[in-house]
Amino acid sequence: MTYTHETAPTRYVEANGTRFAYRRFGKSGDVPLVFNQHYTGTMDYWDPAVTDGLAQSREVILFNNAGVSNSSGETPSSFQEMGANAIAFIRALGLKQVDVLGISIGGFVAQEIALQGGELVRKLILVGTGHRGNDMTASRSAEIFAGSYDPPEHLWLAVHFKPTETSRKAGLAFIERKLRRRDRDPEVSEQTVAAQGEAIGKWITPDENALDYLKSIKQPTLIVQGSDDAIIPTSHSLTLQQNLPNAQLIIYPDAGHGSIYQYPELFVAHATLFLEP
How far apart are CA 136 and CA 204, in angstroms? Predict the structure, then answer.
């Protein structure tokens, strides 16, 4: 049976005392692509247009990290620990090499997977994300997440999309695609929300040597961002590109934090090209 984003069954694997929930689908035989989710997100927060699009040419692996939704244990309060947990999950699947994608704080985790995993990671895709020691004074994250939305799902319009007519239209289409799956993960716990928040605080703590670690990420890296990210300022993606040894940057127009959800077909084409051996 050929599975898709909507039909792939939720499976479980144990590693380091954690029972990780995951879904695996797509074209097997190539290096799998492991997805790392954003703040408070679960496997059901990915865009099927992105996951199914990429699954046409490779195997896609979605998972909930430790403590998130239906994965057991507690969510740790640092991205270093989250990266170590993700590596344990990948190795528990018996995989010798993977490509890694991360969006937002998932991009922080993806960087840690590349740092700690070494040759386990072949290539890296970083979406709407930043580096350690981020200057977040220009971020509207606190204001957006503190807002009231009717329906509540429209929070993600504000998070991922710009308030322009074209971006908002793309956002509504994304939400419709995102909600198609009926067998959905539980939402994250208060423990996860608190731990992820604490981890963000540690990650953005000012440090004059904050960028030094990037020189140790040798893997080819594709950085993808919207022209006006209200959550993690777009300028941080340029800083990433300039400090990573082997990185390229794509900025999509009239787009925000979730640029790949506004331009899923274009992103799939760019990512597929980048991920080719």
Answer: 8
Structural element, H or E, at residue 251: strand 247-252
Q: pLDDT tens digits for 46-81? A: 999 999 999 999 999 999 999 999 999 999 999 999
Tens of pLDDT, residue by residue over 16-28, are 999 999 999 999 9
| Alpha helices, H only, 93-216 | 105-117, 141-145, 155-160, 165-178, 190-203
pTM for the predicted model, two decimal places: 0.98
List CB contacts of 58: < 8 A, sequence separation 6 or more: 26, 27, 30, 31, 32, 33, 99, 275
Residue 254, exposed/middle/buried by CB under 10 A (0-12, 13-18, 19+)? middle
Strand positions, DSSP E, 9-163: 11-15, 18-26, 33-36, 59-64, 98-103, 121-127
200: Cβ contacts below 8 Å, ≥ 6 apart: 39, 105
Name the DSSP letter for residue 58: S
Neighbours of 183 (CB within 10 A): 10
Torsion of CA 55, 193, 244, 277, to 10 degrees: -10
CB 89 within 8 A of CB 20: yes
Peptide bond just before 151 cis, omega within 30 deg:
yes
